[in-house]
UniProtKB/TrEMBL annotation:
InterPro entries per record: Integrase_cat-core (IPR001584), Retrovirus_Pol_polyprotein (IPR050951), RNaseH-like_sf (IPR012337), RNaseH_sf (IPR036397)
Organism placement in taxonomy: Eukaryota, Viridiplantae, Streptophyta, Embryophyta, Tracheophyta
Transmembrane residue ranges: none
Gene Ontology MF terms: nucleic acid binding
Origin species: Escallonia herrerae
Protein name per UniProt: Integrase catalytic domain-containing protein
């Protein structure tokens, strides 16, 4: 058993700098998430404009929503069963897990103590354990010189990020036919996502519905409602929907 019976890790990552904050928790509740976000993010780096989380109840509740609204933070949720919506955090979770596995070997209960060490290679940008010769005078001189180039470097980095994403999008779009829905269209939901307990057994249906598209939130993300007009909670990604033809 881990120290203090801690079983969860909450992770936050800045999308631009890739800086990561992580903390182990015994319980994953709304109050614990607020405390982590206040202490590890807001008090250290300021108030962000946008926060993207998964659909866990610790985030999708009135208390956490009020906490974000009080700080003028725009709270967004990833699409159901679509972790790619928050890909950088999911990649970081995988990196932290791999780092913990290398550190722990058979002592799995000691992961709480090893969590900061697993984060260190990520934070300093070292993929492997290496030793560098450090010169304080040379380091200070380089830092002063870098200040003059900081704005240009940031602009160049942003241009590279945008250019890379555009290339990835073009490569992906050449091979994928995008599934587009419009307001009023009918669609089926993947049963294993909407109601996992019902999708039991090889002979159970794969899809359920139909439902009506009530709103297009962004390309590939939709709000649904029943045929009688009752709103369906949460955002639904096109990957978990298919057209319904009458």
């Amino acid at each position: 058993m881990a120290t203090g019976q801690r079983r969860f890790v909450i992770v936050a990552i800045d999308y631009f700098t890739k800086w990561t904050e992580a903390e182990s928790l015994a319980t994953i509740t709304a109050s614990k998430c607020e405390e982590f976000f206040w202490k590890n993010v807001i008090c250290r780096f300021g108030v962000p404009k946008i926060l993207i989380t998964d659909n866990g109840k610790q985030f999708d509740n009135s208390n956490f929503r009020s906490f974000c609204e009080g700080l003028s933070i725009c709270l967004h949720f990833t699409s159901v069963a679509h972790p790619q919506s928050n890909g950088q955090t999911e990649n970081m979770n995988r990196s932290i897990l791999q780092g913990l596995k290398r550190k722990l070997d058979d002592a799995k209960g000691a992961w709480v103590d090893e969590l900061p060490k697993a984060l260190l290679p990520v934070e300093v940008g070292l993929p492997t354990v290496r030793v560098l010769q450090f010169s304080e005078a040379e380091n200070e001189e380089n830092l002063r010189g870098n200040l003059d180039l900081l704005d240009d470097v940031r602009a160049q980095a942003l241009d590279r990020v945008i250019s890379t994403k555009q290339r990835v999008v073009r490569f992906y779009n050449r091979r994928v036919r995008m599934r587009i829905f419009r307001v009023g269209d009918l669609a089926l939901r993947k049963l294993g996502v909407s109601n996992p307990k019902a999708a039991v057994g090889k002979l159970s249906p794969n899809w359920e519905g139909p439902y009506k598209m009530s709103k297009v939130l962004r390309p590939g993300a939709y709000s649904l409602e029943t045929l009688s007009g009752e709103a369906i909670p949460r955002t639904w990604n096109a990957d978990n929907l298919r057209p319904y033809y009458q």
